[in-house]
TrEMBL record:
<protein>
    <recommendedName>
        <fullName>Aspartate aminotransferase</fullName>
        <ecNumber>2.6.1.1</ecNumber>
    </recommendedName>
</protein>
<dbReference type="InterPro" id="IPR015424">
    <property type="entry name" value="PyrdxlP-dep_Trfase"/>
</dbReference>
<dbReference type="GO" id="GO:0005829">
    <property type="term" value="C:cytosol"/>
</dbReference>
<dbReference type="Pfam" id="PF00155">
    <property type="entry name" value="Aminotran_1_2"/>
</dbReference>
<keyword id="KW-0808">Transferase</keyword>
<dbReference type="GO" id="GO:0004069">
    <property type="term" value="F:L-aspartate:2-oxoglutarate aminotransferase activity"/>
</dbReference>
<dbReference type="InterPro" id="IPR015421">
    <property type="entry name" value="PyrdxlP-dep_Trfase_major"/>
</dbReference>
<comment type="subunit">
    <text>Homodimer.</text>
</comment>
<dbReference type="InterPro" id="IPR015422">
    <property type="entry name" value="PyrdxlP-dep_Trfase_small"/>
</dbReference>
<dbReference type="InterPro" id="IPR004838">
    <property type="entry name" value="NHTrfase_class1_PyrdxlP-BS"/>
</dbReference>
<keyword id="KW-0663">Pyridoxal phosphate</keyword>
<feature type="domain" description="Aminotransferase class I/classII large">
    <location>
        <begin position="6"/>
        <end position="301"/>
    </location>
</feature>
<keyword id="KW-0032">Aminotransferase</keyword>
<comment type="similarity">
    <text>Belongs to the class-I pyridoxal-phosphate-dependent aminotransferase family.</text>
</comment>
<dbReference type="GO" id="GO:0030170">
    <property type="term" value="F:pyridoxal phosphate binding"/>
</dbReference>
<dbReference type="GO" id="GO:0006532">
    <property type="term" value="P:aspartate biosynthetic process"/>
</dbReference>
<dbReference type="InterPro" id="IPR000796">
    <property type="entry name" value="Asp_trans"/>
</dbReference>
Amino acid sequence: FLQTLGVQTLGGTGALSIGAQFLKKCLGRSHFYLSDPHWKAYEIIIMQAGFEKSSCYRYWNAEKQYIDMDGLSEDLSKAEPNSVVLLQACAHNPTGCDPTPEQWAKIASLMKKNRLFPFFDIAYQGLASGDMDKDAETVRYFVDQGFELMCAQSFSKNFGLYGERVGSLTIVSNCAHTMPHIASKMINIAEGNYLVPPLHGSRIVASVLKKPALFQEWQSCVKTMLNRIIAMRSGLKKRLEALKTPGSWDHITSQRGMFCLIGLAPAQIEYLRKKHHVYTLENGRMNVAALTPSNLDHVAWSIHDTVLNAKG
């Protein structure tokens, strides 16, 4: 039977860090695979944990605005056995596009065949679909398929506790007798990094999760947050279409979560920043949660002007 162990961490990044350190120092894993594109901090955390090599598996077809399942499958099928593969459970950062259940099943099959170790990051639970269980179903599917795995979890976004650094690392193993040893190693690694995480934020989370009335209220609050993000996506798309901005903007509303890959070229992103003071990352990732009814018109007009006047 699969056994689980949970470790409180300094946010999701702390979970990623001590998990990666354990995989490297205790299990001798040396090769990590990340999606292309991925959150920039992933590679920093992984390499600082001592991994010797990180590679990317294809994930996103920027031209057609969908998951490159053929490229992803080819890259995972060629991955070195016993490598660690980072998978985002929901609301993929930065693309906002997640595999379908059928695609996840294919990914799981490839990973099992090639003896690859899944390391999930679930930083936006509830902010993809509005349903906590649905946003976690991919992790549970892999567990049901018999995988040993790790899952880094953050409560920064869905609890609004950015400054409190509340996270957890869940380890799933098929060897019950090894769990005490794993726990001991995890404690040693954590002590070498930060000793113990703070109590304040974790007690807030624990209190909400343990009390049915608070839990229900929290779920409702997360849905309210998500609905606002969805409304901002819809508002931006409608404004761009009303302005007759060249191109299709369907991807703004088809993507999920806090972020959107807006689809602008590097030169256009620079133009958008310098002329209109609208800021995205270099890859065009926009924080949809930063949009408000008062700035939507400005952002839409800025993108419209950029598409018309900046070379792609």
